Structures are given as structure tokens and as C-alpha cells.
Amino acid sequence: MFTSRRLFGTNGIRGIVNRELTCEKTAKIGCAIGTYFKKGSLIVGYDARTSGPMLTDAVTSGLIAAGCNVLHAGMAPTPTLQYAVKKHQADGAVIVTASHNPPEYNGIKVVWNDGIELSREQEIEIENIFFDEKTRYADWDKIGSVRSLPSIIDEYVDAIKQHVDTAKIAVKHYHVVVDAANSVGSLATPRLLRELGCKVTTINANIDGTFPGRLPEPRPENLVELSSVVRAVKADLGVAFDGDADRSVFADETGEIHWGDKTFALVAKDFLQTHKGEKIVTPISSSTLIKDVADAFHGELVWTRVGSVTVSQTMKKLKAKLGGEENGGIFYGAHQPVRDGAMATALILNLMAKTGKKLSTLLSELPKYYIEKGKVPCPESLKEKALKRLAEDVKHLNPNTIDGIKLWFTDKSAILIRPSGTEPVFRLYAEAKTSKKAAKLVNEYTSKLKKCLTI
Ligand code: MG
Question: Is position 99 annotated as part of the catalytic site?
Fold first, then answer.
């Protein structure tokens, strides 16, 4: 029935609803998760997808069949549910979401009692229970209970306000446009912003799991509407979330959309000014901008493999207080070491209020880099061999091989060559002080990689 022994990808279990992810399979996954947790209370919630209530009921039946109690939190952003785990001292959470995937998808994220998604080792234990048919069904009188958990959004909004200067933000009367992707991004951030004294204009804020407004991936090309609304209403800031509102991408007051590295660099710069020598955790795919900020403000940069769970797990292990990703994930440890779109929005406003500067001005103070991308087709079977050969070729350049190959050069240019996890290609990302140099790097390493594939 199952062709591989893998359920979890980089961010939980994902699949097309009623094809790869059916009610039957979801109930069985729920029972495997419940068996792994043994007993205790797990929070369950879901995002705005049409299949959310259906799959939530399925996963809930599996969990209570295994003897776990379910605290049903309803529809909520992923970081709200993660915060609720800590707040209510639950043993974990199961979140029915496919994050930024298109509407036909749904998925399951499993969170431990610290609010962080499970480590790969923990996921393997659940996969073993699932595939080896080791699910444990409770006796009829030991079946778990279900009760509702209201008010988690109020608690989450209150918690975020503890970490910013609410009075300083309130006197500025900022006007913020929120693009909620027709999903749970509309449930917490508009409320938070109003409580911070902001005027809020929302777009795509009606809950609709068909995602009629835009695709739930907050890439600049999907945010044209946000950009024009920010300009039209003369707002100070625009923010767009992904489908489960853990990632946030910002527009400055001119409507220009900025990719996550830049806003993360701003948050890191501000953080290091008051937390000298602290660690900043970020995947190897992040811009050299983060390295520049860490060097300039005496931070210790820790590179990780690509993936938000790796960033969270590394933060936990090293007791680091700040992490970030180029795709708009900001992990503010004082609140919770997971990416959190509403917390990131509050941090950006806090920075604007503290400095009295517009977002475009703050961003213009960062070093400027030009980015060029490329891709080289490569069958799955050759990826590992090609990567090894290339690593050997560039050994003298002191590569970082934590995830693919990353090279930094003395002229501040850099390149990452990384096998795609989902397609038979290598991806190349170069950055440099001129676009010509970045393009040159992509061409040079495309040739080198092709050579490695033909030997
Ligand atoms: Mg997400």
C-alpha cells in the first residue's frame, strides 16, 4: 500500500486531499502520533483549507483512539497553536495545515511540548509505528476525551505585546496593510495591530480555503495587490502571510516588496545592538547580508541546513535567541523559537517606532547585493556523486558543505549550489556587489557542475 517508509517532509506531512491524504490515512496517522505520545493532552487546530475540519476530525479520532486527550483549538495560525502548547502546558500539538502549498493540498505538523515541531529522529519513531502497524488502540474505557480550548488568539496577541514598546508604537498611528492570503493570517495580526494603535487595511482577509485572492506562498510575484494597496492608501507598511501565518513578507511605504533576508537582517541588527555576542541562527541559503550584520555588530552566526525545524532545533540546542530565514521566517526566542508572522510584524513596527525611520530608509542602510539564480538538471541517482565531485574540486576555497556547497569569496560575493529536495535539478544562488559578477558566478559554477556530471 505504501511505497516508501516516509511520511514527513521538511515541514510535516503533506499531500493532495483525498488522494495522498485521505480521512482513513489521516486517522491512522493520528493513532500513530497518539501511540508515540503515549497519553497526555494534545492541542489540535487547523488553517483555512476546505479540508481542514474533515482532516481535523480524522486526526482527532486517531489521537483519542490511542488514548490521548484532545484540546480542540479550532482555526488558528500555526504560531498561535505553538504558543498555546507552552501556555497551557500541553504535551504537544497536531496542526492540520499545508502552510504555503496550493489549495488542493493539506498536511499535518506535529509539535512537541516545547512548541517546536518534532526532530527528524522523533518523526522516524512515528513513521516506524505507522508502517510497522504498531499503533496502540486504547481499551474502550481508556479512550481519550475532546474538549475545546477557546481564547488562544487573545492570549497569543497579549504575549506578543509584551515584547515590544506598545506606547512608542501607539503614538505613531501607523497605517498597515495586511494581506492574509484568505487564511488564518486574518485572525490574529489585524487584532494585534489595532491594539497597538495602528490603522489596519486588510486584503484577502475573508476566510476562503480556495484561496481566491492569491496563492498562499508569499513570494513577491504573488504580492502585486499588496504593493498597489500600500501605495493607494499611503500606508506605512504592508505585510503578507503564507497559508498558516508563520512566514511574513513585508512591503515598505513605497509598495516595494522585500524578500525575507532583508527584514531579518534589520531585526538581527537591532537585536545585536542590545544583545552583544549573541548567536544568530540561519540556514545556509540566507544572504551574506546576515553575515555582514553579524560581523558588524559582533554577533556569532550559526549556519544550519535549510528548513525551519532545523533552525528551531538548533536555537533550542544552542540556547540562541534569534533565528531567521530568507523566505520570511523570523524566530524570536524571547517569545518562542519558531517562525511567527505576527511577532515579526510587531518587531518591524517596534523598530520603525524606535528609530523614527521609514522601512525603506532602514532597508537602504543595509549593504546592497545583487542576486542571480540558475538550475542544472540532474537525475536523483547522480546528485550525491556530483556534489562530492564538486566539493573535491572547490576544496581549496574552504566550502561549507552543511547543505549543498556554499562558497564565500573575498570580494563579498557568494554562491550556493544545492540539490533540490523535490525536483531532479541542482539550484544555484549567487550574490555579489554587481549583477554582472553574480551572473558570472552562476555561469562559472553551472559549467563546473555540468563537468562533474559527465565524468
Ligand atoms: Mg507556513
Answer: yes
